[in-house]
Specification:
The chain has six helices and three strands; from the N terminus they run H-H-E-H-E-H-E-H-H. Strand 1, helix 3 and strand 2 form a beta-alpha-beta unit.
């Protein structure tokens, strides 16, 4: 087999494999789970409680997030905003702001963030602001 045939075909797998190998460079406590297990924070959001059921919306977003990280780690903490528009900055949404604040802490409970539905989390170019911020925190 060639190297190309055995290489992962997605950037997420490349990142997780590299992240697990370089765990000493990541801020925060080492994972309490298996060696190489990434501790994920889940972020989800719904804008209007009157038109959406927070329980079922959180559940399907969480299930997608779990599917995305299957075999790479576990979700250990979650942040879920109810009643806040995605057009608001992350600093103006309570749960998102808590996630960003915890990312700064050396004892944070996660190594990475997983989002089940991109369009629930970001509007416009927000991802271009949030992702570099999180990356800078390790």
């Amino acid at each position: 087999m060639t190297a190309a045939a055995t290489a992962p075909d997605d950037l997420f797998t490349v990142w997780v494999d590299g992240s697990a190998a370089g765990r000493s460079r990541v801020r925060g406590r080492p994972s309490s789970g298996a060696v190489g297990e990434v501790r994920f924070a889940f972020y989800g959001r719904i804008s209007t409680e009157g038109y959406q059921d927070p329980v079922s919306s959180r559940r399907w977003q969480f299930e997608i997030a779990e599917f995305l990280i299957h075999g790479h780690g576990r979700i250990g903490v979650e942040f879920f905003d109810v009643g806040y528009s995605r057009s608001l900055s992350w600093h103006d949404r309570p749960a998102a702001a808590q996630l960003l604040a915890e990312a700064l802490r050396p004892d944070r409970r996660f190594d990475a963030v997983v989002i089940g539905e991109y369009e629930r989390a970001f509007a416009g170019r927000q991802a271009l602001q949030v992702l570099p911020y999180l990356q800078a925190q390790g």
